[in-house]
């Protein structure tokens, strides 16, 4: 049972500098357990950098990250044990099939035999059992997202960190992923995801942070952030969009 | 279009990495200068001019066999993938591209080398010099297109599973000849070395045999040489024009062949539209003395060695090379040296396993986000290496020792054990210290794609494992020799993995970033920050 007083993710004064560029600037977030949390922002806002720091894939220049109360710097193994991670645009053990990669992941984590039933369920629900002999390297983008989600969920983590889970995938794949995530949150899990799909964020997330230039511009319940308009309209308003002059040569 | 492509290539030369190109240019020009100096000596009668034919044959051989020795090296600076999207007819594009292939370090240093023909023909007067200049141009034309066609053919073959094996066989032949090609010569000079008799049988050769020079001159690499000498000696129009016409005709045919292969490459989609190869899912691997975490990694590694196209070529060549070396040794009469093939498996196995982290690419993120996975990964890689190369190398040495009864058998057996221990522990360490980052694992479909150039790491681990292999033979029979070897094995297997795990924990995120951005500069910066 999760302690409701301990945030699932707590980021304090996170700073990430790449050479002279400041990607994340003293950013702080506190995400309570059982929350469906969205991080949105324009390209280059620092969303992936924040998530990479949250799941230990990047050492921050400054600041702290705590996962279910465990400091990622001083209690890394305990913090990582709480996390299920799905990163966008990175490889997996590419020469394995879906069943093999789940078995590999279960072995690597030293899971008990219960993983077999969970793996079977995940493969079936996500539609990956239809291609049992296809290697990951041959997967489409949607299939990659699905196997990534299955890997992130296999060990029943308390917190799911998902980087762009709906980027470049078809509506059918998106629907199955969305259903799995809803079930997970309903059962008490915490989801932290980055996305450009405002419609999805508005429909599912309870809280959202709008990140621009490595800083949180606004954070709170989705309804409050969106105000009287849609989240998409509010986002464009917050981030600011330059007027697009008409191109004569296109007419 | 040809002019635009020339301009593009010049810009790529100017703005691209220069290290390898400058090294090739300097080395090539030095070698070319040696050939020219040899030609000058030949005109003064210091050496026989047949040596120039030998030099030109070797030089031409490099054009032909270079692409085979490095089947995954893309010689074209302008990537065909960039050009696929342009609305241009592939034949027209390939024709225009073909002329840009004449621009590069290889053609330049070859031109310098072939100018030795002008030096050879100079005593024949102005007409002979003019013919020699034409011979230089025609010979260069043929060599460039021979090399480019072989490279394109190798790239095409590498898209298939059969090609993967062929590439491995080619590499193995080149390596076996490089490492054991001297054995037949040595066996000829020292036929009774295995019995401890070091009497040297001196060969009686004052000059190159005439039939050998005739053969070299008759080969395509010697046609320019034949034409230049025929012009110098005033042999008439036939002996001069015939080789020149042959050079231009065969060169043009090879150029046409290259254009056809390039058209095929330009028409080919960058990725297969549907899965090409289905595989039978593996089963659980249970290994004695290892944790389930390590067994999981070892199982992943074994499957990856068999299925990853880049690793597949390396695995095959690492195994074929010692076997071909054994074949060369067996045919030379030095059967007492056969057990040395055992340690050779460990040496080549270590060389092909020094880039596994870079080959697995950004899949490293999974290890970095899984508690305890880094230690299991290092140990699992070692276990898989021991199964694929280590134990077989020891077994091969033992079998060949038993079969041949060689006096070197004990040393070879001990050498296989120490080499296997050093290779097993050293390969993952070097894979972390010197990753050669190339195309990420998710984007590599066939071995023809750039998977990083691990030659630096290979050249580093080669002498280390070789030294470990010869150690039992050097320290010899006393008890302390065996004791020393055993201590070495224990230290290597026990201590190095601890260091490797620590390094992975320290540099893992930097390595991941380097692979995600495909830049080792990032890794160097990360290492500097840590130190």
Automatic annotation (TrEMBL), chain A:
Annotated PROSITE patterns: ABC_TRANSPORTER_2 (PS50893)
UniProt-listed CDD domains: ABC_DR_subfamily_A (cd03230)
Cited Gene3D superfamilies: P-loop containing nucleotide triphosphate hydrolases
Keywords: ATP-binding, Nucleotide-binding, Transport
Pfam family, one: ABC_tran
Entry superkingdom: Bacteria
ABC transporter domain location: 9-238
Record GO terms (molecular function): ATP binding
Family: Belongs to the ABC transporter superfamily.
Protein name: ABC transporter ATP-binding protein
Organism encoding this protein: Streptomonospora nanhaiensis
TrEMBL record, chain B:
Coiled-coil positions: none
Residue ranges of the TM segments: 21-39, 51-69, 102-122, 128-158, 165-190, 240-266, 317-338, 344-370, 382-403, 415-438, 459-477, 483-504
Entry superkingdom: Bacteria
Keyword field: Membrane, Transmembrane, Transmembrane helix
Protein name: ABC-2 type transport system permease protein
Provenance organism: Streptomonospora nanhaiensis
